[in-house]
Amino acid sequence: MFDNRPDRDAEIVFVGRSNVGKSTLMRELTGHKFETGGKPGVTRKPNHFDWASEDFMLTDLPGFGFMSGVGDEHREQIKTDIVHYIEDNAEKILLGVLVVDGKSVIDIIDRHSGEDEIPHDVEMFYFLQDVGIPVVVAVNKMDKVDDKDDRLNDLCDRLGLHPPWKQWQDTIAPITAKRGSIDSLNESVKEHLHDQKRDDLLKFFS
Ligand SMILES: Nc1nc2c(ncn2[C@@H]2O[C@H](COP(=O)(O)OP(=O)(O)OP(=O)(O)O)[C@@H](O)[C@H]2O)c(=O)[nH]1
Asked: Which residues form a coiled coil (predicted)?
């Protein structure tokens, strides 16, 4: 159970597999330094970036999927905790940002697609929407991707969004967090906040 949640009425959550660059992205967004790199699965509890005066926070949820040194059971528990956290706070969560690694996401999804297997990323994309939370997919590490359009079209296809990806620019945001290239994500987030009449929060996404 995650029990360190500040009491805020507006929140944006960040979810994604371990090692996709979520911590790097959070650091870019908030200017706040915290642990990144090294062993996958470093983040095991949510990190809340909190603006008490605005009644708003960004929440970095723990990475799911493979984590070195973490057994299957514990890994499942973390995923269950993430799902419960999102369900319990769905009314307060304005937006979910699903962070994926642009270089490996298609291979990982395809490897885990089967008759009775839904890949974590695809599952999370639908789950957030099922509980009424709009989703932006931040496709990170685009510096490592050569065939950008093809890759993003494939990702749309796997998520059930009709390609070409360019018609989904509110949903698909290619970024390179490590170099601070996150404009497309800022734009998508602002679009969603504007749609939800939360123009007061636009200033956090310059
Ligand atoms: N090439 C490239 N590497 C990146 C980018 N963003 C992050 N990385 C690298 O990816 C690795 C993982 O980054 P983290 O930010 O620690 O990833 P995380 O998703 O927070 O990982 P967990 O703590 O395991 O959940 C690090 O070596 C980063 O330097 C990027 O845009 N491009």
From this structure: none
The CATH number linked to 31 is: 3.40.50.300
Dihedrals phi, psi of 98, to nearest 5 degrees:
-95, 115
Query: To which residue do tokens 């603006």 refer?
Result: 51
Going by alpha carbons, the residue nearest to atom 7 of ligand 1 is 21
Contact predicate 142/174, CB 8 Å: yes
Mutate to test the pocket of ligand 1, among 15, 17, 23, 79 (most ligand atoms within 8 A of CB): 23
Q: Supply the pTM of this predicted model.
A: 0.93
Q: What is the ipTM of this complex?
A: 0.97
Domains in the chain, number: 1
- Across-strand partners of 100? 139
Q: Determine the structural domain holding residue 183 and report its residue range.
A: 10-201
* Position 206 in a domain: no
Q: Does 3 map to a domain?
A: no
CB 153 within 8 A of CB 165: yes
